[in-house]
Structure formats: C-alpha cells, structure tokens
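Usage example:
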Amino acid sequence: MSIGLNHFLIVSGILFSLGIFAIVTRKNAIMVLMGIEFILNASNINFIAFSKFGNFGVQGEVIALFVIVLAACEAAIALAIVLNIYKQFTTVNVDEINNLKN
Amino acid sequence: MNENLMINLSVIALFIPLIGFFFTVVLGKRIKSMYLFEILIISAVMIISALLAFFKLAYYTDAVFIAEFTWIKIQNLPVFGDFSFNLGVKLDNISVIMLFVVAAISTLVHYYSIAYMKGDKRYNRFFAYLGIFTFSMNGIVLTHNLLMMYIFWELVGLSSYLLIGFWYEKKSASDAAKKAFLVNRIGDMGMLAGILIVFFTFHTFTFDEIFGQVASGVLPFNSEFWLTMMGILLFCGAIGKSAQFPLHVWLPDAMEGPTPVSALIHAATMVAAGVYLTVRIFPIMTGDALLFVAVVGMLSAFIPATIALTQTDIKRVLAYSTVSQLGYMIMAIGVGSVVYGFFHLVTHAFFKAGLFLGSGSVIHGMHHEQEITQMGGLRKKMPVTYYTFLIFCLAISGVPFFSGFLSKDGILAATANFSIFTGHWLIPVAAFSVAILTAFYMFRLLILTFHGTPRNQHKYDHAHESPKFMIVPLVILALFSFFFIFSPNPISAENGWTLSSWLKVPNSVVPESARYSFLASAPADGSSGSLYTHEYVESSHHIHYYVLFGSLLLAGIGILFAYLFYQYRKLNADKLTGKITPLYTFSRNKWYFDELYQSTFVAGTMRLAGLLAWFDSTIVDGIVNLSASVTRIFSRISGAFDNYVVDGLVNLFATLSGMFGLILRRFQTGRVQVYLVFVLFSLIVLILTFA
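Running the assembly step on the lines above writes:
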C-alpha cells in the first residue's frame, strides 16, 4: 500500500481537530497557543501534501515556510502578551481574564 | 338773578352734597373733624336753595325753567325708531319749595346731630350718609323726567337703608333696614313697570312731553284702561316709599335708626317723595286711578291712626302718625285736591320733623328711654322741648293759628266736596274721624310724656334739658309751624300767598271721559286757568265754613278727650280698654299686619324656597348624580379594558421579549472559546447544509 494524498489529509485533519480541541477546552493560555500551533502545522501539512501530489511546483512549500515564520512571530508576540497578562492578573487562566465584561 | 344762574345754582345744590359725602366717607376715619366739612356743604345747599326759592317765588312766580341735555341717543332701532334719553332739571314753584324744605330740614337735622350723635364711634360716617341722602333727595326734587327720578328714587332707598341700619350691631336695626329695603322694592317694581309702559308708549321720560302727548290723544295701547293702569303702577312707587297701606309696615320698624334720621328721612322728606311723585304725575292720572289713590290714602290715614292710639313707644306713635298724615296727603291728591296735598306735605314736614327732633331730645335727656310709660312730668325738666313739642302737637292736631290747621282744613274740605260731586261718602267720614284720632293720640303722647307726675323717679331725676345744638333747631321748626309763614289769615290759607300764587300744578290732560267731572281742562290759549270747574269752586266756597267749624270741633273733641283720660283722670283709660279688650289688643298689635305678612308672604316665600330646595337637592342633584354614576361605570369599564387588554398585550410582549432575552443571554458568555465552538458548529452546519 502506497501512501497517498488522503493519508496526509487525514493526518492533517486529526492534527487540526486536536488543535481546535486544545483551543476550546484548555484553560491555560499557553495551551491555547499550542492549539493554534497545531492548527498552523495542520495547514502546513496540507500545503505540502497538495504541493507534492498536485501540479503546483514549489508554491506549497514556499507558503509553508512563510507559515512557519509567521507562526514564530505569532508565538513571540502571543507569549509576550501572555507574560503581560500574567503580570497583570497573576494567572493565565483565560476564564478568569474577563474584566472587559464587567 | 336770571334763568341760567338759577339753573346752575340748582345743579350745584344737587351735586355738592355728593362731594360732601365722598370726602367725608373717605377721609372720615383719619380726620376727626371731617363732619364739619359736611356741615359746611349742607349749609351752602341751604343758602342756595333759600336764594332759589326766594327769587323764583318773588320774581318768576309763573315761569318754569327747564334745562336738559341728551344723555344717550340711539338711532334706527327696530320697533322704536330713533330715541334719546334726556336728563335735566326743572325749576317750578313746587320743586323750589320742596328743595327749600329738604335743605332747611336737612340742615337743622345736621346741626341737631352734632349734639345728638356725640360720642358715636361712626360719627363722621353718619354725616356722610346724611350727605348722600341730601344728594339723592335733591335729585328727586329737581329732575324733569321719570328715568332720573327712578335713579334717585333707588338712591334714597339706599341711603334710607344705610341710615336705618346705622347701628347695625343691633339685630333689630339691621332687620329693620332689610325690611325697609325689601318692602320698598315691591313698590318700586310697580313703578318700574309703569315707567316701562310710559317709555313704550311715549318714547320719552320727560314729564312735560308725556303730558303733551296724552293731551293730544296718545294713550298706552290706545285704551283708557291702560292709562289708568299706568297711573296706578307709577303710584305703586309712592305706596312703597311713602309707606302707604298695604306697604306701610316698614316705616314703624325704621324707627330703629337714629332719631335725627327718623326726623329727616322717615318723617319729613324721603317718605314725602311718594307724595311728590304723585303730585308730579297728577295730570295723567285718570279718575279711576285717582280713586284708587284716594282709597289707598284713606286706608293709610285711618288704620295707622287707630294703631297709634295704643302704642307706648314715643317714636312708634310718631311713626304711625307719619303714615297717617302721609295718607292724608295721598288722599288729598286722590280726591283731586293736589295743591292741598302738597301744601300738607310742606307744613307736615316742618312740624313732624320738629316732633321727631323733640322726641329725640326727650330720649337724649332720658338717657335712651323710649317708653312713655317710664316718662311723665318732664315739662319742668325740659321746658324748651316741652313748649316746642306743644306747638308741634297743636299744629298736627289742626288747631287754628298753626300751619297744620291750614292744610288739614283744606284737605277735609276737599274730601267733603269730593263726596258731594261723586258720592263717595266714606272718604270724608274717614278723614274727619282721623282728625279726631290724631288730636287724641298726639295729646295723649304729650300729656303722658310731659305732664303729671314722674312714673319713674330714678330716670326723672337724671333727666336734663338738651344742649343748644338740639334746642335751636326745635325753636326754628316751631317758628315754621305757625300760620304766618304760609298765609296771613290764620284760619284759611286759600287767599294766602302760598296757595293763591305759589302752588301751581298743570291741569289734568286725561281725556274728558276718563277724568273726574269736576277737573277742568287747560285753557286753549295756554294760560294757567283753574284746575277745577266753576261748579266745584262754587261748592267748595259754600261748604268751607261748615268744614272749618267741623274740623275745629273735631280737633277740640280729640284734645278734650285726651285731657279727660290722661290729664284729669275723669275717664279711666284702663277701664275702657278692659271693656273693649279685643279692639285694644287688635290695635296694640298693629292690626296683626306683621303677623299676616309673616304667615303669608314671608312663610309662603320660605315654603316656596323649601320646595325649590327640595327640587334642587332631589331631582336636579339626582339627575346629576345619576349621570355621574353612569359616567363612573363607563370609566370603570374603560379602565378595566385599559388595565387588562391594552396593558395585558403590552405586558405580554414585554414578558416574551424578556423570555427571549433570558434565553439569548445564555449564549453571551463572554468566553471566546465558547464563541469559537459556536462558530465551528455553525460552520459545520452550513457545510453539511450546502455541500
């Protein structure tokens, strides 16, 4: 049995679902961020898979590289925000950070 | 003195008392001696009226001065067309004599009041009221038309009301004032109706124009009957104001006012206004109307004379005697002897004012005691009051050498002559019997008050003669009660200056068929002829001496009996009253007139008012309440509709919105993760739907 596009997409789907699950269920902000990383990587797998099995040249790989860079930037900024939140509220639990509501 | 000056002076004499009233009433509370201003004014009026009377009577004996101006002018009125109200004054002999009488007595009463009213807390106001009375009375005297006369007529009614109720703290005084005013109103209503007929028929109020139109054949509703009715209606005013039967009940009660007021208003002048009015309208009175006048006068002369016999209040006796004497005057006019009616007015004004002022002097001297049963023997204590009172009594009883004899004798002769020509024998019988009664009750009053021994020693000891201000007016009035003021002949006034040249009234202008047969028409050439036919004058000469001796005899009998009863005690009055008790109580209670009116008119009015009140409170209020409750029921229903239906709908929507809100707020958790779940869920639903 050769490994085809579907397998990649299934892996990507599982990863995406896990990411979503992490975002929705985790209370810890850092865990939520990690869920986002999962989703970004799921999309990377999709790009590369389509690039390999489709007729697009190297465009998929290039976009994947962009996504990696973007993810790094995002992680840096998000972690900085989380740090500041922690300084402000002494917690990183997203359920407790609801001052805007009141 | 020429015509213009006389007119101007009369207008001044009319209006300055009003100025006096105004200033005295406004400044009276602040300035203690304000009454002096009023005294000054009245003295000026007195001087002016004396001048007017002198020049008019001496130099313009036969002239009549009239000055008028148009007050209101209305054009193109439906039914009436054009007409104008003229106001004006008329100076003839009657009006200047009357003006002088009013001013003279008014002045004397003012002077008298200075002493009599001393210490009263409304001293200045009293003089102010006297001022407005003088103004109103002068208006009645001087006017030349009925409209103005009616206006001033009501004004004297007002001033009479104010002065009767001057001591309004006393219930009896304020009641008497109200009674006088209301009873007068009844008469005035008749007079107003008469004036309306006059205006509807003749389109003018001026006396002379009315006479002219009647003379040229214009009659109300073209019938002599309505001319009679018009005369009787106008005369109703005189019935009220001159306190004639059946409206005489107010005058005795009016004695609640201060005694100077009784003298001025309720004896000498205001009550004589009715006689003056009747003199003025005499030319348009038909025979039937005059007969009505004569009968009213006869009853008014006789009934109060019988009442006066038994009264014991000094002022009440005089009040009933006033009604009786006014009845004489009215009766004289009714029997056609208008000149003697007016003459008696003048002589009576002086001696009756004197009698009242004399009684005021007694009351003042006895420290406000009015019952003659408490008096007696006052002759020694109050000599001047006694002798003047004696003169007035002689005058009113009709004793020769005094003014009352001249006029009363003339009236008696006229009634006798009247019965010869028309056959109404009851009128002279009543007139002659009243002459006896008058002499009797006046001397009863005099003897009980001044002669004999004091019946109340304590009061007698404290009695004193009145001050000069009260004595001098009495002396002056006594002077005016002698014959030589009016006529050189002490037993007949016929050829004296008063009657032969001064007192002139217009001839009757009523159609020949409707007037007394002995009244003559005016001569065609406009000159002043005799009022009466030749036969009447003949007959009056013929009977004159019989009447003269008759009236002398009657006065003598009256006085003699008074002396026998009360001075010499030869006859016992108490024994006599014991024998005729019903008659005595009937007279003592004033013929029960007050009770009669109380039980018929007053009680009837009250009953009617009660009925109307019941109608109001039951029927009218019932309808109102019914409509109110119907409205209330309707509003209940509409309120319930509002509360349950309209509000229910609104509340339903509100509740629904609230419920939706409650549901929807569940989704607004504020947690990003929950929103994300919704987004994903929705996305999946969308994909499943459209894929």
